[in-house]
Design brief:
alpha+beta, Immunoglobulin-like, 3 domains, two-stranded antiparallel ribbon
Length: 356
């Protein structure tokens, strides 16, 4: 049976905090089951506390064998300092580097050990490793670059982000400090929206913040996502980076909705309203249910109508959703069909900045 300290030490190797203070200042300790579940989501080789001893040994070995961090930061005007973990046989080996700048130019030379740097070591699974603090004295211009480092027979690579140490305020001394608000769009749920916040809620919230002299509203990515099969509503795993997410459409604000009797009849029907009330009553966002309701309405709007539809001010060629979504059986084209319609209509509701 693994001890709590063993689990805590293992979690620390994954940068997982197991003890914290809540909003009332009370110390909280996460239960072991929750910690193991999070570790599993981070691809840690644990299914129960019985796996901890071997998993701890494996993780320590992997970390010491990861000779350099994947991303380094060079502050403008200062040398690039970083640590490497190497076998003891490379303790005195001179390092040679090459920085491939984002412009394609090269910087090359030798890196030295940081003066007064403390060398620490550890034996892991029979191999003695050392941590060396290295310095590149050359000034690295601002931007995103690639570092190639050679230490004896060891060849390492890492990204280098060269950044200014601070951001600067306006040159106009009379300008007040700017401020803004961050909020995930789905959390801006209102009594009007369909179970989750939408672009109209975002516009309303933007007006509220702007009325308080706020300068910006930020939210999570709103790109098209997998909302059917496969299902993955994560804003960081979009099906496309070209189109907005139809999940956040305010269906009733789509211009064609006002001229589509079929869509109005559907949305006002008893069955639809009961399903909509159920979606609104959920304590968490039910992406499948909310999207299913919106998709019904969007498809009703996209069906050919005998009544003429007023022209819209747009540069994109109009096409029925059914024409686009049925041209191929894959999910990408279906998303593109909804997204093309969304790109025509959502520009009034998506906020990128606020005027003072």
């Amino acid at each position: 049976m693994a001890t709590p300290d063993l689990l805590k030490n293992f979690a620390r190797l994954y940068n997982l905090q197991t003890v914290y203070r809540d909003g009332f200042g009370q110390v909280r300790t996460a239960p072991p089951e929750a910690i193991i579940a999070v570790l599993k989501s981070l691809d840690a080789p644990v299914n129960s506390s019985d796996d901890l001893p071997s998993a701890l040994r494996e993780r320590r070995q992997n970390l010491w064998q990861r000779a350099i961090e994947p991303v380094l930061v060079a502050w403008q005007g200062k040398p690039l300092s970083f640590k490497v973990r190497v076998p003891q046989r490379l303790a005195e080996t001179k390092g040679k580097y090459q920085v491939v700048l984002e412009t394609g130019e090269l910087q090359a030379g030798e890196c030295s050990d940081e003066p007064g740097g403390r060398v620490c070591g550890r034996e892991v699974e029979g191999v003695r490793y050392l941590v060396r603090s290295l310095v590149i004295q050359a000034q690295i211009p601002l931007g995103y670059h690639r570092l190639k480092l050679r230490l004896g027979d060891l060849h390492l690579e890492s990204y280098v982000i060269s950044a200014p140490p601070q951001a600067y305020a306006s040159v106009n001394a009379n300008d007040a400090k700017a401020w803004g608000v961050f909020c995930p769009l789905y959390a801006l749920n209102s009594a009007r929206s369909w179970g989750a916040g939408d672009y109209t809620d975002l516009a309303t919230f933007a007006g509220f913040v702007g009325g308080l002299k706020g300068q910006a509203v930020a939210t999570l990515p709103m790109l098209a996502s997998f909302l059917d099969e496969p299902f993955n509503p994560s804003p960081y795993a979009p099906v496309s980076r070209l189109f907005w997410n139809e999940f956040y459409l305010d269906v009733t604000r789509i211009p064609e909705f006002a001229h589509c009797p079929g869509a109005k009849v559907l949305v006002n029907s008893g069955g639809f309203q009961r399903a909509l009330s159920d979606a609104r009553a959920q304590s968490v966002v039910d992406y499948r249910k909310c999207m299913a309701l919106k998709r019904q309405a969007i498809e009703a709007i996209g069906r050919p109508s005998p009544a003429p539809v007023r022209s819209l001010p747009m540069t994109m060629t109009r096409a029925p959703i059914s024409t686009i979504s049925t041209s191929s059986g894959n999910a990408t084209n279906k998303s593109a069909g909804c997204a093309m319609r969304r790109k025509r209509t959502a520009r009034c509701f998506i906020l990128t900045s606020l005027s003072a």
